[in-house]
Amino acid sequence: MNRSGFISLKKRFASLAARSTPAIFQLFGDAIAIGLALPVFIQLGFFTGFYSISFPLYDESILNSIFLSILPATILYWICMFWLAGLYRNWFVRSPFTEVFTVIRAIALGSLFVFLAILFTSANFHGFRLKIILYAIILCILVSISRIIIRVFQRALRRKGIIKVETILMGNPDKIADLYITMTQNPSWGYRAQGVILTHETDLIDWQKRVVPSTTLPVLGYSNQAQQILSKESPSDVIVMMEQTDHRWLLDIVMQCRELGISVKIQPDLYEIFTGQARLLAIHGMPLIDINPELLKTWERVVKRIFDIVFSAIVLLLGLPFLLITAILVKLDSKGPIFFSQIRVGKNGKIFTMYKFRSMITDAEAEGPRWASVNDPRVTRLGRFLRKSHLDEIPQFWNVLKGEMSLVGPRPERPFFVEKFKKDVPYYLRRLVIRPGLTGWNQVHYRDYEETLEEITNRLKHDFYYIENMSLQLDVEIIIRTVIRVFRGQGQA
Asked: What is the percent of the chain where pLDDT is above 70?
């Protein structure tokens, strides 16, 4: 083997190690959590007196020996269930909330199999039901804690560069530059850019205009040289960013990467995000694309609306004393009304009045509609605190209760800006297919005020992501992330 071949083999081994290390950590943590779940289950049962009723013929030592004898098989069983659930794949891109939800689903399914096995093999099925439920709850808690701890540990390793994913960026120079800057600002992602492959030689001029990436990130070549470059560099991942995707070229890249064992990720443009809701159907044998399928199943829509009503009613009733105190403080802080009302555009373009605690001076838009900005001089002293803590938005629970808004969804916009954006931003009206929300995917990922068309377009991508992936699970994740942001005081002042 020559030197270049040895280097290529070494890079591929490093790439495989980078992808496998997180899964090995997770598997090791799962084994410990599963092993701990059994003794915790046993001790909790005796502490509560649960076993003295259920197992009158056994003492603690006998049960300990029984459970410990099945420990290896138990660990193997649950690791297989987690593997089938995909918990050892795509570790870097999985949200912690998605990971915990997947753990819960895998344990629920595994417990169901145990239920069925006992049902057909044991005459005392009823005596085991509560025990399996208790064990499943303990296992969910311990495995989730283990995975969160390991996630934090590996995040630190990625930040220090101990675990890293060698990556090549391909495509549009402006998009590559933006992503590279984001990657350098977030070292905990674990990606290390080796270089860029531009689409055409003419892109080199545009690339050199972007000072930060062009001086620190080498141009490895162009798309017609991609196969040779990828074979030589042997990256772990390739991220493709195209303005207008050439599907034939993209297919060639995917096939080349597959042959080399390289993972491919593609950053979609707005059109691809928009058509992400498309599905193929056939009418009398004719294939057609439906771009307006149901975003949620009927039962999910009902559950989402019931949750909106119940949660809003609880907040408004239990928070009444706080609402009164806040109203008094707003009145004392500055002249003007307590509440601020504004016309917004809701689902399917329906106009409604949205309410907030007033956080700005009276006549803040005397010169016409304009966005709020960082350190906006129109914001009052109390208003700055209310905005940062999101407490100014509590009156919007009334809008949620009335059905004009939902707890989770894209933020409602004013008619003036809707008219402006629908002319300047492609597919902007796509946001209006669902109820606007108190919080959304954009709010938990994008912390700055949007002041330019580019920033509005970026927000739109987050909104479309939510619309494309709408689910009750995603709503729960967004609500939890929002609560964390509120307690950390990460709102926009």
From this structure: 75
> Where does residue 337 rank: exposed (0-12), middle (13-18), buried (19+ CB within 10 A)?
exposed
For residues 209, 215, 217, 223, the Cα torsion angle rounded to the nearest 10 degrees is 40
For 417, list phi and psi in degrees, rounded to 5: -80, -30
Other CB atoms within 10 A of residue 407 CB:
22
Q: What amino acid occupies position 373?
A: S
**DSSP-derived 3-state class of residue 24:** helix
Neighbours of 396 (CB within 10 A): 24
Q: What class does CATH assign to 165-267? A: alpha beta
For the chain, how far is it from start to end, CA to CA, in angstroms?
A: 62
Mean pLDDT of 182-204: 84
Tell me the per-residue pLDDT of 370-394, one tens digit each, with 9 for 90 and over: 666 556 667 788 888 888 788 888 9
Q: How many C-beta neighbours within 10 Å does residue 260 have?
A: 17
By three-state DSSP, how is residue 243 classified? coil
**pLDDT at site 284:** 44
In Å, what is the CA distance from 245 to each residue of 13, 96, 106, 269? 31, 31, 37, 9
DSSP secondary structure of 142-160: HHHHHHHHHHHHHHHHHHT
Whether 220 contacts 197, CB under 8 Å:
yes
Element (H, E) at 191: strand 191-198
Q: Is the pLDDT of residue 44 over 60?
A: yes
User: According to the model, what pLDDT value does residue 478 have?
Assistant: 92
Across the chain, which distance is largest between two alpha carbons, in Å?
83
The confidence score (pLDDT) of residue 206 equals: 81
Per the listing, tokens 């373009």 go with 349
Provide the pLDDT confidence category of residue 283 given band limits of 50, 70 and 90.
very low
Q: Is 122 exposed, middle or buried (0-12, 13-18, 19+ CB in 10 A)?
A: exposed
| Average pLDDT of the chain to the nearest whole number | 79
User: From residue 406, how far is each of 168, 301, 435, 477 by CA, in Å?
Assistant: 41, 11, 6, 15
Could you tell me the residue ranges of all domains in the chain?
3-159, 165-267, 298-488
- Residue 340, classed as helix, strand or coil, is strand
Identify the helix (H) or strand (E) that includes residue 289.
Answer: strand 286-290
- Which residues does 241 contact at the CB level (< 8 Å), separation at least 6? 169, 170, 171, 172, 175, 176, 179, 266, 267
pLDDT tens, position by position, 210-266? 766 666 788 899 888 888 888 888 888 888 886 655 666 777 777 778 777 788 887
